[in-house]
Amino acid sequence: MAHIAEPYGPPRPVFVSKTAPDQVRFVSIDALKGLAILFLWVVYAFPGTDSLPDQLKPSAWGQVHLVNLLVPAILLALGAGIALSAGFAASNGETFLRFLNRALKRSLCLIFIGILLDSAVELRPVVQVGALQLMGLCYFLTAVFSRTPVWLRAALAEGLLLAYWAWIRLSVVPGGKIGTFNEHTNIVRHMNERVLAPYGLRGLIAVVPVLSVMLTGTMAGSAYWEELPRVKRALAFIGAGAIMVALGWVCTMPWALDMPMVQAYWTSSYALFATGISACVLGLFTLLLDGYGGRIAAFLFLVPASSVVLGIAGPLFLKSMVLQTWRMPGSNESLEGGLVRLSMDQFGPVAGRWVYGAAFVVLWWVILAVVYSRRNRSREES
After folding, report:
1. Run of H or E including 18
2. Beta bridge pairs of residue 327
3. How does DSSP classify residue 116?
4. How many CB atoms are located within 10 Å of the residue 150 CB?
């Protein structure tokens, strides 16, 4: 599990015909993951959503808030890491089967932790396809295509989104007309609830758009192998991201694909738009952080990125198994509710919630800082 967020090995001189990067890790990739995880912690920290800014609250049908961009950002960064990992493995002379074996172990680990997390949240054994399970499945599938030509990965990534759109628009939903897609009646919801849920596979359909996002990330990862100046690479990311953002917006128009942006169903327009925003941020970080002194400037983000699994699953485990289950001494009030109440009594109703939320975020940042420190120490010793 410790290496899921850190797939890179020591660089070697040659990968296919490219010159290997002179960095073991790229700050921009880790910073993108870390920034997204930090925002996730803020969302996790609040028992309700009243105190959160609107951009961190669940969005309405057809709308995209900042909170809807966090998971795609992590997926894009993981995809970039897979491409770099495949390159370093090849330069080390590792066979592709051995590389896939390592990727399979990481995928199974993600799936297992996802099942544990869902069961902890529900306080009962639950088997379904949640966020970590999707990430695990797509991690291995992305690794399978990680050494294929970039043009093939690009065609596959966009082809998956087009096929996903066509399936939604050409399918007949029971009780609706062909192509019906609204909040209450659509083929994705029907398949999840009526076909897949009885087998514990609710949400499996999202593998298609999630895989597209991670494959797009591998294209970004391959770009780090190109002998390009940092500014050109950054502008390439920003340019490609802007095109995806525009295409995602166009796809929502009635005269185009007429597909609203909905994270719950990972619609093609949403996947394009969110991936494009993430690519633009990656380009900005490439420009600002991959140069001299970037690691110091991005230290706040690098710490949460030191373990994606712990950063995502750890806070939810704490909330479900401790904060929402344990009780305050001499009371039936949950530990979380009691701590929030004490903070509000001390600092006021609004400031108190933010003090509690800030303490929650700082706690997890410190925990990940220990992981980050130990990992750096082990690298230095090796």
Report:
1. strand 18-19
2. 334
3. H
4. 15
CA distance 281 to 270: 17
Place of tokens 């590792």: 94
Cα angle value 113/114/117 (rounded, 5°) = 85
Side chain identity at 320, as an amino acid letter? S
Which mean pLDDT values do the consecutive 10-residue runs of the chain (382 residues) have?
A: 42 41 74 97 81 86 95 97 92 91 95 90 83 95 96 96 95 86 92 91 95 97 87 96 97 91 96 98 96 92 94 92 88 90 90 92 96 82 61
- Tell me if 113 sits within 8 A of 1, measured CB to CB: yes
> Three-state SS for 270?
helix
Q: What is the pLDDT of residue 196?
A: 93
Cβ neighbours of residue 225 closer than 8 Å, sequence gap 6 or more: 15, 18, 19, 20, 21, 84, 87
pLDDT score for 381:
63
- Name which of 152, 140, 129, 139 is nearest 74 in CA terms: 139
Those residues with Cβ within 8 angstroms of residue 186's Cβ, 6 or more apart along the chain or in another chain: 168, 173, 176, 180, 265
Q: Look at residue 274 in the predicted model and tell me its pLDDT.
A: 97
CA geometry: angle 209, 215, 220, nearest 5 deg: 130
For residue 360, CA distances in Å to 58, 91, 288, 356 come to 20, 42, 29, 6
DSSP labels for 39-87? HHHHHHH-SSSTTS-GGGSPPPTT---GGGGHHHHHHHHHHHHHHHHHH
